[in-house]
């Protein structure tokens, strides 16, 4: 079942210019009570989005050897092409990129290496790909910074209160764009397993007609989030959930593969600074009673427990280290080639046999 049109949590971005208090009130209500919005009339020019969508479909249509030339295992930064195959990702293909030209300070911790260059497709083979993607990225970065200010106000904080989590040094900000391609599959094939996004906020573009993205309602029922032209779905991630002690909650979602045609999506993932320690950051914020009352009302309605938020051991580590640890587990060959000191901790049995030909 799809979310009925009347229940889609639309948020008109242009309202932020015309009637900011109304915009903030809607954002507050939708984030506290659902954890995502369909952002419409956003500031990114249509031609920038159209070129990005065109580049996305053309990238995945490249011959397999051209995509493999952009393999994620070529760099230390978890950018590049990822073939289908891993358990949580059985059918989809992916291409990640982020800020380039990042220089590391002398003596930086290992986790500062998680952002950096991308193995791009050959420009002769695919003219304009990199430029279109870079232009889109630039606009999303601006949108994300502006939207963060609105989220701050929606939570009852000063507009710049969350900026301290994000740093002015772009190399530490943890921004990444992911192009995703889900091919036709038999009915009910998993495209991406149920999960909550682990970052701060996600801005998702669904440019294809194919359905597939689903959210879990508090009742446990899964409902489809249809693609609507000209909108981004903006989701709360786990880091924002933790920083707000559960005032807003990261929605559980999954993707079911299409049964006809290919589904594409483009996610812009906004993290907090690599050096931010989530538990420490969370201690700095105090939310007004009026906003806490909305959380209480949700908890009562949904039968949630109102227990104090419990932080895990990882919440006391820098956010970049948590991301690196997760990625080193998921990408053994990158760990082996670029993080030799950390490799044994995550792969005590050595490199899995399937990578034997990739190293000498
Ligand atoms: O493809 C989509 O629509 C969503 C993908 C997703 O949830 C993710 O990559 O975290
Ligand atoms: Fe997700």
UniProtKB/TrEMBL annotation:
PROSITE patterns: FE2OG_OXY
Domain Fe2OG dioxygenase: 173-272
GO function terms (MF aspect): metal ion binding; oxidoreductase activity
Pfam families in UniProt: 2OG-FeII_Oxy, DIOX_N
Family classification: Belongs to the iron/ascorbate-dependent oxidoreductase family.
Keywords from the named record: Iron, Metal-binding, Oxidoreductase
SUPFAM superfamilies reported in the protein's UniProt record: Clavaminate synthase-like
Annotated protein name in UniProt: Fe2OG dioxygenase domain-containing protein
Taxonomic lineage of the native organism: Eukaryota, Fungi, Dikarya, Basidiomycota, Agaricomycotina
